[in-house]
Every structure is written in structure tokens, then in C-alpha cells.
Amino acid sequence: MPDYDFCITGAGCAGLSLLVRILSTPPLQKKKILLVDSHTKKDNDRTWCFWEKGEGYFENLVHRRWSSLQFHDGHQSRLLDTAPYIYKMIRGIDFYTYCFRFIQQFDNVVHLHGKVESLHSDAACTCAVIDGRKITAGRIFNSIPSPAPAAGRHWLLLQHFRGWVIRSLRPVFTPQQGTIMDFRTTQQYGTSFFYVLPHSPTEALVECTFFTDSLLPDMTYTHLLTRYISKVLRITDYVILEREEGVIPMSTATYPHSQHRIHHIGAAAGLTKPSTGYTFKNIQRDCAAIVRSLANNNEPSRKHTSPRFRLYDRIMLNVLVTKKLSGQHLFSSLFTHTHPADLLAFLDETSTPSQDWRIIRSLPKAPFLRAMLGELFQPGPGYIPVRPSRDPLPTHTVCSEE
Ligand SMILES: Cc1cc2nc3c(=O)[nH]c(=O)nc-3n(C[C@H](O)[C@H](O)[C@H](O)COP(=O)(O)OP(=O)(O)OC[C@H]3O[C@@H](n4cnc5c(N)ncnc54)[C@H](O)[C@@H]3O)c2cc1C
Description:
Elements: E1 4-9, H1 13-23, E2 33-37, E3 47-53, E4 62-66, E5 68-72, E6 77-81, E7 85-91, H2 92-104, E8 109-113, E9 116-121, E10 126-130, E11 133-142, E12 156-168, E13 177-182, E14 191-198, E15 203-212, H3 218-232, E16 238-251, E17 258-259, E18 262-264, H4 280-295, H5 307-321, H6 327-337, H7 340-347, H8 353-361, H9 365-377, E19 398-400
Parallel strand pairs: 1-2, 1-11, 2-8, 5-13, 9-19, 11-18
Antiparallel strand pairs: 3-7, 4-7, 5-6, 9-10, 10-11, 12-15, 12-16, 13-14, 14-15, 17-18
Helix pairs in contact: 1-2, 1-4, 5-9, 7-8
The structure holds flavin-adenine dinucleotide.
Flavin-adenine dinucleotide (FAD) is lined by residues 10-15, 36-39, 46-50, 115-116, 143-144, 244, 246, 248, 266-268, 278-280, 283, 396.
């Protein structure tokens, strides 16, 4: 008998979303489960934004909602009505606190603070080594990304950002109105924009974001944030209440969902949308599907991104990485020439072929046609060559034997 029915490695967005759903599902809620993370998750280390129609699974945790979003490309501005979608924000700390409180009610769950060093699964045994100690489990749900480079040829851009929650002395923000992209900033480092998500007339998260192949010195982010707040938002007297920073790899690499009885979840399963970096909603959809199949005693069933949306992502990244078109020009075409509901459905991978066609029509023809032909017929020169993952496995890489 394994020590646990399930072991969940990583208590971040995916690990906790899955565990809360498992514990809320009667046929599964008595399973013996180990949750392990090397971090205590007591900080507000990130905020998750996403859009959806109506209410979502973690609706009670939504911190702010916006029903209209501004887009500025430097020459023109557009106010987008997001209906039927609502743009929402969940603060990491609220999510962690809620999930840990919920989990505490179940004495069949062990929450361990420890470092996962390796995972292993074969016909005989599925196990994790945590701080040098081996535990066995019926299944492992792993959200710890492998540090080994992804195999195969793919595009990779880094989405890196720094943000401040600021409080202005004067009321300057319209709370119902966010700014999803503001290109009124230098493009000298590559695709670069700001977003502004107001919490009240005096408070907002202001974040500068880049889609480039390398990070920038600390000073640059600080300089650009300070400049944007004073010159574009015209706020002179403010205090910084919170800081956020992060890097999200935007990659068209494919990741295995399962290796024997190790099932990857979250960003480790490649659930980050390559062309936008949004991941939260994909994680929720995936966790819901896993729990549904487990409750029916089936192997975890996962939805793979359809070939159509994979191709769109590859074309978008091809255009951005090879600079066939600047990010400013690309997003300006998308945000100023399309209906917001079509665009949000398209980016959410729920659009119909006719919505897709309306989006495609809005884009400059030549660069996208060249990128599409490259993706369909010449998977070669334009691709970033990446070593196949034959590297020695670093300490917490997942290995499996079929
Ligand atoms: C700052 C930031 C902001 C983001 N904002 C958005 C957003 O607005 N919208 C959106 O859709 N996506 C966003 N993302 C992307 C994505 O949604 C998040 O990264 C999300 O947290 C991914 O969930 P996850 O469970 O896969 O990974 P994580 O939430 O990162 O969880 C992985 C967990 O594994 C633990 N861990 C790592 N190594 C080990 C080890 N060896 N042993 C034990 N534990 C380990 C970590 O401590 C962590 O708790 C953001 C990402 C960042 C970094």
C-alpha cells in the first residue's frame, strides 16, 4: 500500500486549486493526501487576472472586477466594453489563506513544508523524495516546473514585469475602468506596455510589462514605472503600498501531461498560454477535468489545446520573436479593429471559427501570412533550436520509467 493516495507537489495556484476541488468532491474527499511545498505561501507574491462570463469557482475570492478596459497604442485610445465577460483579479494571499483554511478541516490531508528533490514512477512504485525522505503515493500531481530546457524546436519569449500598488493623494482613477495595455512607453527594449488596475479612486496596481528575450536591470523597471506614473498618469504625490514582480515564460514547447502515475499540472503542464502568459483559467479548467475523471474512477482526463489555437500561438510568437511586426502594432490591430467579445473569446480559446475569422481579418496581412507559411511549411530557420532534454537531471526534475 502506498503511504498516500495522492501526493500534490507544489502548493501554488494549481496544487491548491486541485486539492480544494478534490476535497469538495464526495467520492474523493476521504482520500489520504500529502501536500508539499518548500515555501510557506504567506506573502502576496502575485495577483491573478483573467476574464470570464458570470461566476467562477473561486468567485468569493475575487478582489476587484472591471467591465471596461482602456487600450492606448500611443496614437489612439479605445475604451472596450468587456461584456459578456468580466475582467477579474484574485490576490495570491487571499487565495492561499482561503485554501489553507479550507484544507485544515480535513485530517486526511498532511501539509508538509519541504523541498521536493525528485519524483519517480514505474509499474512497481510512484514516489517522491522530499528532503531526503522517500514517500510513496498512488498518484502524484506535480506543479513544480522542471528546470531542464524543453525539448524540441519552439519559440520562447519572456514576459517580465514589475508593478506597484500605489496610493495617490488625490483621486485620479476610475475604479470600474482598467487599462489592459498602454503603449505610451519606450519600445527600445522590445514590446513594452503598462497596465493599470484601479482598486479605488486613489489606489491602483500599475505594472510595466515586457515581452522580450532577456530581463532588464532593476533600475530600468523602476525608472520606467516612475516616469509613467508622473508623465502619463500625471500623479506626483503617491506612496507605494505593495510591489509585484515576475517572469512568465511564453513558450510554444509542448509538455507531457502525464508520465506514468505522475500527472503534471499548472505551468509545469504547459498551461500558460504562449501568446499571452495567462494561465489561471486554464489551470481551473484542467483541475475541474481531472477531478471529474478521478471521481468516476478514470485516469485523469485532460483537455489539450486544439491544433487550431496551437497554430495561432505559434504564428503570434513567430511574428513577435522575429520582429516581423512590433508588439505595439500587433496589439493595436487586435484591440482597435475587433469587437472586444470576439477578441476575449479568441484569447480564451473559446472562439468560434467566424469569430476567429473576424480577428484574423483585423491583422496586417503580409507579416502574418509569412509567419503562417513558416509555421506550416518551414519549421526550420526561424525556430530557436533547443537541446533535447538529455541533460543530467537536476535535483527536482521529474523522471519516470514506463
Ligand atoms: C508574479 C506573477 C503574476 C502572474 N499573474 C498572472 C495573471 O494575472 N493571470 C494569469 O492567468 N497568470 C498569471 N501568472 C501566471 C500563472 O498563473 C502563475 O504563475 C500561477 O501561479 C501558476 O500556477 P502553478 O501552480 O503552476 O505554479 P505556482 O503557483 O508557481 O506553484 C508552484 C509551487 O511549487 C513550489 N515549489 C517549487 N519548487 C519546489 C520544490 N523543489 N519543492 C517543493 N515546492 C516547490 C513553489 O513554492 C510554488 O508554491 C502570473 C505569474 C507570476 C509569477
